[in-house]
Recover the amino acids of this structure.
């Protein structure tokens, strides 16, 4: 294997692989990248066995072939190189020589045969524009559970129909649901897939490099999901198990509707949160006619209180929330504007949504705290 | 300070009945007087000692000891099953007597109470005189003996009443608390048990006096907040001992079967009943449990415990039962004979917690049902309303006639 490629192109691809490569793995080969060169391309693969990525860039190939290189070291080396051509050459014993301008490195590689074989991408079953994919994931990813014991909640559910798509995520305490009308290419009926949180995080990284309209092609085999964006593919192990029946959780009788300014509310919650109990993150909201008061108290540090203007004309209600759950919503709901807080009583789930729904219909269901 | 010193010094009495269950039995059946009597279970050797007469204690029998052991130590003792309703009646009579002395009475258990006599000097004279009067009045009206500790703090009074036993009165003068506690072994201090004691001993701390010597800073460095608490208590200064001990760390109920069983239905019924007892007490205390545990003892005395942490802290019988049943199904092979089962709730809290989104509607419904059930129980007794799982399908339950509430799942 011998080739050269531009530093800028290579660095972009290496950056995309860093999240996939396992840092502390017990299987040494998984900290390496697989380089394969043929014709005029360099193909790069990385995997932690749950997640895999295939990407690449154009290269001037002198000799075809393949080799594996420590991912983290290589990334740091390339990042520090001057903007020039980087030259790679496979040496004896899997060593790889990297030269660029006046610098030269020799890296300890490993036998290519030990690198796990990534499954090949089947024919796509559906395609969504990158912009839609990215927006839906940003509005839901934060609500995914990180508790490993609840593995069916460790991902978001993507539900596609020929003319609409929706995504929903929950950790058992709150739930984020986003729907939009979109032409789903290639889809005849309904398709449901559960996408693991880590896959979504990596996918968001890939999507940030893509144009709004670039299609994200989804395909699957028995145990993997494939997301193809241009020449890059992200492969994820499928989550097994049943996603909870989220429709049963969506509130139907939340008739006490409070309208609030989003920026003011976010700022107020952030301030009051400074003195909230550090363990429970509880704040208390007292909703009165055209006014919402927010309280917090911490045994150790004291109390906070703030009054917000609101639009509300029903009977007053007092309810407790985890402030972090509220802030999570307000940080992804979009710039400015009004939000609606829809309540039923102090122990039933509340619903938050933007007062004006745009292309995306977004709702966020939060269970209150017992205070 | 313009107040007279008498009003600023607190007078706390700790009253502890002497061998309460046994004494009640003796009142009911005078032939028992002067004999070794053990209350706890029938003589076939199951369960634990609930109370032992002083004659039986001479042989080393003490409460919470397995009946089997007690039988070995004191084979000639008279074993009684116990009449809990009777004990309850006596307890109430004693409580009423206490209330003649002060409105601030805290019954900590069926046979033990703290009385706050601060500011009652005009009424009863000194606390010492009042305590003497109280012991006599209890004896006159009920025939029962009690022991009393008097001091300025709950903790010191409790230890004093223990020192005074049986039928004694010990008054620790204000200002002498630390001196009184100093020679006592650390184990005498409530809050120091089988975990803390060895740790303290390894530091060369044997008496409460050693704790005082060690000083607040050293104890804090070593044990954190608990260290501070240890220091305050060891000096007898702790005026809030009460709250600290009153907040339960766990609530549990267990029962030994009359005969060892491996009948799943019977175990389920029992677990369901125990779960309800635990749930009821959680609600009474206004507490929620984050952890639910199962205790199983198999016929050859092998004991096993299993815990599960819940998504949302609970005080609902149905949630406790469902969790404990799952633990049981995982822990039992379907064949082993079971001697004892217990349901335990721990990680208790009354502070704010996050409610769970999933199954919220069912929980809310059950919450309402239980509130109603608890009201019925207040009037007609605990057994008046039961989970269907607690009731034998083809027979009337043995305890009392029980009503039905419908299956909870």
């Amino acid at each position: 294997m011998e080739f050269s490629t531009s530093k800028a192109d290579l660095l972009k691809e290496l950056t995309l692989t860093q999240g996939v490569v396992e840092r502390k793995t017990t299987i040494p080969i998984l900290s390496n990248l697989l380089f394969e060169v043929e014709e005029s391309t360099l193909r790069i693969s990385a995997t932690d066995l749950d997640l895999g990525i295939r990407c690449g860039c154009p290269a001037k190939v002198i000799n075809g072939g393949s080799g594996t290189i420590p991912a983290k070291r290589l990334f740091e080396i390339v990042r520090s190189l001057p903007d020039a051509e980087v030259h790679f050459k496979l040496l004896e014993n899997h060593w790889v020589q990297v030269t660029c301008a006046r610098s030269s490195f020799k890296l300890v590689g490993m036998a290519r045969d030990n690198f796990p074989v990534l499954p090949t991408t089947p024919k796509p079953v559906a395609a969504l524009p990158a912009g839609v994919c990215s927006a839906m994931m940003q509005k839901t990813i934060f609500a995914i559970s990180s508790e490993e014991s609840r593995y069916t909640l460790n991902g978001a559910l993507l539900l596609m129909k020929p003319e609409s798509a929706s995504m929903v995520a929950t950790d058992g305490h709150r739930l984020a649901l986003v729907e939009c009308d979109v032409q789903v290419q290639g889809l005849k009926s309904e398709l449901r897939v559960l996408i693991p949180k880590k896959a979504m995080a990596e996918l968001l990284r890939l999507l940030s490099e893509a144009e709004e309209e670039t299609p994200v092609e989804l395909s699957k085999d028995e145990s993997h999901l494939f997301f193809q964006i241009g020449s890059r593919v992200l492969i994820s192990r499928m989550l097994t198990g049943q996603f909870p029946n989220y429709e049963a959780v969506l509130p139907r009788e939340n008739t006490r509707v409070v309208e609030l300014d989003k920026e003011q509310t976010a700022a107020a919650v952030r301030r009051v949160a400074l003195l909230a109990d550090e363990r429970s993150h509880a704040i208390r909201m007292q909703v009165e006619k055209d006014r919402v008061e927010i309280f917090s108290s911490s045994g150790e540090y004291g109390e906070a209180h703030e009054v917000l203007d609101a639009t509300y004309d029903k009977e007053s209600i007092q309810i407790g929330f985890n402030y972090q759950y509220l802030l999570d919503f307000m940080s992804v709901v979009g710039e400015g504007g009004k939000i609606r807080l829809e309540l039923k009583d102090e122990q039933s789930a509340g619903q938050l949504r933007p007062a004006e729904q745009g292309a995306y219909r977004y709702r966020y269901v939060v269970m209150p705290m017992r205070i | 300070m313009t107040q007279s010193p008498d009003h600023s010094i607190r007078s706390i009495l700790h009253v502890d009945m002497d061998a309460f269950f046994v004494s009640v039995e003796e009142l009911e059946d005078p032939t028992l007087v002067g004999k070794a009597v053990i209350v706890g279970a029938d003589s076939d050797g199951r369960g634990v000692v609930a109370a032992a007469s002083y004659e039986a204690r001479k042989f080393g029998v003490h409460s919470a000891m397995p009946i089997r052991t007690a039988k070995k130590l004191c084979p000639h003792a008279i074993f009684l099953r116990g009449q809990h309703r009777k004990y309850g009646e006596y307890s109430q009579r004693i409580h009423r007597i206490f209330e003649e002395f002060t409105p601030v009475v805290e019954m900590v258990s069926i046979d033990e109470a703290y009385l706050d006599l601060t500011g009652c000097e005009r009424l009863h004279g000194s606390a010492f005189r009042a305590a003497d009067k109280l012991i006599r009045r209890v004896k006159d009206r009920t025939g029962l003996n009690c022991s009393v500790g008097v001091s300025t703090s709950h903790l010191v009074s409790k230890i004093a009443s223990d020192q005074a036993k049986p039928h004694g009165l010990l008054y620790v003068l204000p200002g002498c608390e630390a001196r009184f506690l100093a020679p006592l072994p650390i184990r005498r201090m409530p809050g120091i048990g089988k975990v803390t004691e060895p740790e303290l001993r390894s530091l060369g701390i044997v008496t409460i006096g050693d704790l005082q010597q060690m000083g607040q800073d050293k104890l804090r460095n070593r044990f954190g907040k608990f260290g501070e608490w240890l220091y305050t208590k060891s000096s007898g200064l702790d005026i809030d001992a009460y709250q600290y001990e009153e907040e339960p760390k766990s609530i549990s109920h267990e029962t030994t079967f009359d005969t060892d069983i491996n009948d799943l239905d019977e175990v389920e019924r029992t677990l369901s009943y125990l779960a309800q007892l635990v749930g009821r007490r959680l609600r009474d205390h206004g507490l929620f449990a984050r952890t639910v545990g199962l205790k199983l003892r198999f016929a050859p005395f092998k004991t096993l415990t299993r815990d599960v942490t819940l998504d949302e802290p609970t005080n609902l019988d149905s949630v406790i039962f469902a969790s404990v049943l799952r633990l049981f199904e995982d822990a039992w092979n379907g064949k082993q004979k079971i001697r004892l089962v217990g349901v335990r709730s721990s990680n208790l809290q009354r502070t704010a917690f996050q409610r769970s989104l999933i199954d919220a509607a069912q929980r809310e419904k059950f919450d309402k049902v239980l509130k109603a059930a608890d009201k019925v129980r207040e009037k007609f007794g605990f057994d008046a309303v039961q989970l269907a799982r607690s009731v034998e399908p083809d027979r009337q339950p043995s305890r009392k006639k029980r009503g039905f509430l419908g299956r909870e799942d």
The first helix of chain B runs from residue 5 to 8. Chain B has three domains: 8-172, 180-234, 250-408.
